[in-house]
Amino acid sequence: MTGADMALPAQDERTLPAVVLRDIDTRPLEQVLTELQSVIEHHGHVIVVCSQATPLAVRRRLHTLRSLLESDRIALFRPDLPPLGLAVLARQLRQLASCDLSPGVLASAGRLLIHYIHSGALLGSVARLDRVPVDLRQHAKSWMPGSQFAVLAHPQPQLVRLGPEASLDGPEFGTWMLVAKGQLQSDWVTTALAPSWKVQGLRETPLPADSPGWWGTGKLIEFCTYLPDLSVLYQLVTSVRRGVCHWCGIDVIGDRCVFCSAVPPAPEGTPALARGRT
């Protein structure tokens, strides 16, 4: 993780602790390089999970570190999830890290588990929201005093103005909900949304530091539903067909290797243009 606030408390006794790469864009490059090399030597492989809202300087430093180490044992994972959803996904990977999964399968698991996460927020304004489509009428109403908006960012964007009939499309399977409160005062998420989604449990956590920037306002309550049970997560991951990266030889789920970024070679006889060559 690139921020300590993204390292959620362990879900169970098997959940491995997160390694936090602190201030990697401001500390001396040599110092951060030594730290990351030590982590690789201790664990073998490293999956770096960071938000789409992570500053450009941090992302550039991560790519610089990976290049300098000349290592295919570092996977940079930046899924398109709001900060709280990303923190939940990172914890699920920490849960699975205690199982008998190879590094490639574990890193690939993030792309699979993201489909089982519903992530959104209750906002006091959508005037600066640019990650979910906002029409002109909703934008205008966001300037009205007292207006609140329920927003689902993942898996399918959805935005409704809060009212007696307001609702969001939720998961069709049993989940838990995690709630992080910002500067907005409302109980709609816990008293209306959670029951309508039939969540099986609800917990609260501090708001991630990246959340106000991601949502365009500090007046928010962020929420996320997820699968908490390690056995269910493990069954989902192990039920998917695995392959072997033709470049680095690591086990993977899906078409692209998360460590070396290689994709399967085109079948013999495929026209050059279809292979992406000119």
Can you summarize this structure?
This protein has 278 residues and is of the alpha+beta class. It has 8 helices and 10 strands. It folds into 2 domains: 4-115 and 241-252, Rossmann fold; 118-226, Hypothetical Protein Tm841, Chain: A,domain 3 (2-Layer Sandwich), CATH 3.30.1180.
CATH class of the largest domain: Alpha Beta
Summed over residues and divided by their number, the pLDDT gives a mean of 87
- H/E order of the elements? HEHEHHEHEEEHEHEHEE
Q: Could you estimate the helical fraction of the residues in percent?
A: 25-40%
Count of individual domains: 2
In the CATH hierarchy, the third-tier topology of the largest domain is known as Rossmann fold
Portion in beta strands: 15-25%
The order of strands across the largest sheet is 5-4-3-8-6-7
Low-confidence stretches: 272-278
| Helix count, DSSP H or I runs of 4 or more residues | 8
Structural class: alpha+beta
Radius of gyration: 20 Å
CATH architecture of the largest domain: 3-Layer(aba) Sandwich
Which word captures the global form?
A: globular
The N- and C-terminal alpha carbons lie at a distance of: 39 Å
Query: Largest sheet, if any?
Result: 6 strands, mixed
Number of strands: 10
